[in-house]
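Re: beginner question about structure tokens

> Can someone show what the tokenized structure looks like for a real chain? I only ever see the sequence side.

Sure, here's an example I had lying around. Input first:
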Amino acid sequence: MNKVSLVAIATMILVASCSDETTVYNSPEENVLLEDNQTILDNSISFENSGVLDIFELDKTTGKVSKNEDGTAGDYPLTLVGQVTSPSYRGTLLTASHVDVEGDYAYISYNTSGDTYLGGIDAVNISDPNNPRVTSRLYYTNADINSIKYDNGYVYLAGGFDSERSATIEFNSFVGKVNVTNGRFDISGGITYGFQEGFNATDVKITGNTLLVASGKDGVITKYDKATVTSTNEAAFADLRAMAINDNTIAVLDGSQGVNVLNQDLEVTAQIGIVSDFGDFAKRTLDFYENNIIVSEGAKGAGVYEAGSGTLLEYIPILINPEGVDNSDVVTNAVAVNEGIVLMANGGAGLCLSEDAGDNTDLVGIIALDGSINYVETKGDYAFAASGKSGLQIIKMNKPSTSLEAACSASPVYSGSSNLNVNSGEELAYRGSKRFNSVNVDGGLLLCGSWTVRNAVNINQSGSFEMNGTFVVGRNNRRRNVTVGKDATFRVEGNLTIYGDLILEDGATLAFLGANSVVNVLGDVVKNGDVQITGSFDDVQNKF
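And the corresponding structure tokens:
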């Protein structure tokens, strides 16, 4: 690793601000290490658990959650793209604390629990959903990084460091501005830092040309000029955990009393008093959703409040995985909203998925992921769950495209069994977005939309299966096959992923339609006799 020791405090620049205690440095106190071992970066992605994700669904009659393997096909055909494994530094495993997604890259921050100050940041190229790559990594040997935000060629970091090891800096909370180009951090020109009151900077947000940084116990929310990291305004709060921005409105979560709504001058315009135990120094977030604010409230789950009046609309409770977890780790750490879907990072209770039902929120279930979920971010067709020492988990939501829905609009929406069986002589066609347990075709089947299958897919002798959209089978650590039987036909238009083998029996036909089909077979393509493969397609694993 290339080590850059930036302790030349003689080069510091003192910047005047509304508080004469706010200092900006072009060189920080901490040592910064840039990982230059490409092998380490290349091996930082694990595909062991990739594939179809189960959801432990809520039974509204019993209140329990379980896998629904033989009932009605479930909504939300999610898949796990891969995991960014948490890095280690000199034997200490770092913890994923936050993620920000912009364009083709996800940026991850790391910290360390307890009194140790040790953290880092990763840049991950996610342009190819089948092959995410860690492109750059930066270690901080005397700082925790608790939040990260990308903007216009820079990542902005919020965290805390051990000020007792500094002869010059008296504050623990800091914000840093790091140059990043094509997913690679560049520290050759230095890193610009700002320091502010508070035990630990907990969140960083950007609005226009303004950088907002919140610091925790006995801290402040500070406005900085984004270009220079010069402080322009600040306001004190007792225990700031997180911020959310909606147009010109800023909401801050104060662990001592609830939510404060601020204007651009950091003046409090409204308050939402919340009587919840937010825990000491624990991660908690909030998010705007339409006219509401959703707040992660620890053991209570997530509270939904009307933003204008502050009225409590409902609590979204924490579902418990049937395998059980320690009660002390059953807490809602973070919430995120994506087009009517609410995701709750519930610590040891996992990642909970709910959906907007108009006047309230319907619980769907718990997404089967490893690790304690500390933070969740969602954007577009992806969700990113920071699962502590299990690293960052990249989830594809597989939303059906509008154009695909229109092309298949004549077909009814599927609402049947999770075990889809098409008998000989039947011709069935459906559109939608579902999770199947198994698919068995003796007749003819057309599926338009996004679909996952937990177990095997069999297109039996002389059967016909056409798919248009996204179709994913199995997972990497529990592989399942797709078998195209004797004289059977499998037509593919879209994206086909098989965590297992694609088996083509004698006389089978595999036809790719259109010019943009993608096939990703993680096992083998097995040809048992004379088979026909037609059309153009992108062979991700070069198995054909």
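Each token stands for a local structural state, so reading them left to right follows the chain. The longest strand covers residues 230-246.
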